[in-house]
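Case study: Rubredoxin.
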Amino acid sequence: MNDTPGKRAWMCLLCGWVYYETLGLPEEGIPPGTPWENIPDTWQCPTCGATKEDFVMEEL
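Here is what the predicted structure looks like once written out:
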């Protein structure tokens, strides 16, 4: 498993949407390479509205 910040993926347990740190989420102001820890705690899944607590790191 790659646990290097900036090169991980986080999957929403509710809908399966994946945040890839290498891609970021530019349309929401999160640049590529942004580690999961640097995303605001108030951020929500763009698909289902889940909170960061509902995400798990996935092996790439």
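For the exam, be able to explain this: The CA atoms of residues 5 and 36 lie 7 Å apart.
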